[in-house]
Amino acid sequence: MQRPRNGAIIAAMKVLGLETSCDETGVAVYDTGDGLVAHALHSQVDLHALYGGVVPEIASRDHQKRLLPLIRGVLREARIDRPDAIAYTAGPGLVGALMVGGGMAAGLGAAWNCPVVAVHHMEGHLVAPLLEPDPPAFPFLALLVSGGHTLLVHVRELGDYIQLGTTLDDAVGEAFDKTAKLLGLGYPGGPALASLAGDGDDAAFSFPRPMMNRAELDFSFSGLKTAVMIEVRKAEAAGTLDARRADIAASFQRAAIDTLVGKAVKAAERVGLDRAVVAGGVGANRLLREKMAECFPGDVYYPRLEFCTDNGAMIAVAGALRLADAAECREIIARARWPLASLERPARR
Ligand code: KG4
Ligand code: ZN
Description:
This protein has 349 residues and is of the alpha/beta class. It has two domains: 14-132 and 307-342, Nucleotidyltransferase, domain 5 (2-Layer Sandwich); 140-302, 2-Layer Sandwich (Nucleotidyltransferase, domain 5). Helix content is 40%, strand content 18%. It is built from ten helices and ten strands.
């Protein structure tokens, strides 16, 4: 896959990307000639940590407060007064939070008289490795692992997606977060659980690898979560939870990562792909990266760590790749649900 270099898609254009689908306000400017020129992020994690999870109303209000100052700062850093186009996350996500980014894109698009592109959040994650110096070429297998999704996708080219597998219950990031909560690690628990797991024995508990031996490429994490809950309760009753916490974290992480990697390898063999992209928040997990390097029969591409979790840069680059779909913004699109496989290739000009 090529970056949209000067002239490859359209004459160099600067695209402002806005991400507000959940609890991170992300803003960036991507230049179709020079690549990423500026980006900024404000995380709401501290706000939501008080409640142990994302509170939608608080998320929307905080995006509202942060977005404009972040946009001003990023435009200043990019040394421009206005972009040539605006891309915003239109879903899937929290509708109120999405409306803040969509409303801002519509307002600025009208004021600046520039086109607006509605971006699919998971397509943003999918193209985030294009921001790196050695981007993957199409086709590839995508393992998209976040707090809301666990997807295996055959990516034939941009907008040509065949979903090979998804989760039947919890997303893997959600399973990390819920397990972390059981272990008293606060919110969001993924990174804290991964770090605690580093001190534990991953063979201490034999947790299930759900669906591993089935031919389908779907995932299920709720049984694993329940198995962890039973061990936590047992340890609590025996007064040994503090001593066993790291072992439980390590054994859970190992089971979850074995499942992801096992299915990714199976999927690549089935459709004959020797390249994979791993993206989304759980893509930051070190064990996942180690196990993919060990087991995946081919090259594996990742975004840099800061672009694994939600950010504006991935939305700006996805918008740049979809400039052909840009339009004068007449309606704000905000979709709670939006299947990735329903996307189409960008329009031809
Ligand atoms: O992509 P993302 O920022 O937001 C969504 O679109 O959901 O992903 C956030 C998820 C959270 O569930 C978080 O706990 C998880 O990614 N996460 C991790 C790690 N870093 C973030 N899970 C496991 N290991 C990590 N190092
Ligand atoms: Zn995300």
